[in-house]
């Protein structure tokens, strides 16, 4: 068959191991997954109430244009309805953008390490991938700018960055956007937007108004706690969004996902609480790292990447045996580190106590 040549070398996305599998493999009663940056506090209780009390006709296709959700998000953000593109998670938006703008002969610029889906989709489209190493765990916008040439189609800025959790300061972003050629699309992936507390980040919505070549991506999967439903969206100028609309699959958000996203959006109290609890969790981890002299990156997200002073695969395995799933830095391009999503306070305490034991056992702590 005539598969694209590049497909032959590719593998499907490797998610963190599912809880049930780890339970079986190690005979554990309880397994805590701190690997995929999901919200440990679940989602707004109003969503569960809504699902219990709503009768939906499953035989009918969803509204492909997600009109009700569109109205809700446009009001929430203060943008026009036609400035929004909805996807089955931002993963879908990344695929749509890549499909629309990437092909053999063009290139795309991204930080390294950063979110894997940018390069994954670029590879499928046969575009050249230009990875620019992070500087102190942060995007090196100067080097990224230097990587741009007349064949550059998309620059991805993961802000805050996954897996380091670091932000791009507004000052730097502003200077970067000013000089990037107008034919180059700059995508700001703000999957962790709600968690940001550092004033060095400033809301980026106005950049969409100033620059036609800027698109912002946000999602209901992280702080809103709706990863199961797959709802993400992009914000851009109307004529740019209209170029992406034909690439979108006709019914890429389900009926139920559109409805619960609206309910979740209305409950900003839940988001506020989530952010407060996340801040407390962050302090737990930072204190642990400081106490043991482990390097960590200042996170503006619900996860933290920190040093384990030994092979991160070993720590990943040893923690899994004890009922904790994390991400090994080896899988993320940051060997010697692990990425841990914050859990509930109780989960974090248990995790850090267990980790301390494992690190001592491995001779990583004195
Ligand atoms: C989790 C994540 C996404 C994907 O989110 P979905 O909306 O669930 O597809 C996108 N970008 C980054 C940086 C993420 O961490």
Automatic annotation (TrEMBL):
GO terms for biological process: L-histidine biosynthetic process. Its EC number is 2.6.1.9. The modification N6-(pyridoxal phosphate)lysine is found at residue 222. One of its GO terms (molecular function) is histidinol-phosphate transaminase activity. Its cofactor is pyridoxal 5'-phosphate. Pathway: Amino-acid biosynthesis; L-histidine biosynthesis; L-histidine from 5-phospho-alpha-D-ribose 1-diphosphate: step 7/9. It catalyses: L-histidinol phosphate + 2-oxoglutarate = 3-(imidazol-4-yl)-2-oxopropyl phosphate + L-glutamate. Keywords: Amino-acid biosynthesis, Aminotransferase, Histidine biosynthesis, Pyridoxal phosphate, Transferase. The keyword Mitochondrion does not apply. Residues 30-355 form the Aminotransferase class I/classII large domain. Gene3D superfamilies: Aspartate Aminotransferase, domain 1, Type I PLP-dependent aspartate aminotransferase-like (Major domain). InterPro entries: Aminotrans_II_pyridoxalP_BS, Aminotransferase_I/II_large, HisP_aminotrans, HistidinolP_aminotransfase, PyrdxlP-dep_Trfase, PyrdxlP-dep_Trfase_major, PyrdxlP-dep_Trfase_small. Homodimer. NCBIfam families: hisC (TIGR01141). Belongs to the class-II pyridoxal-phosphate-dependent aminotransferase family. Histidinol-phosphate aminotransferase subfamily. This is Histidinol-phosphate aminotransferase. The gene is hisC.
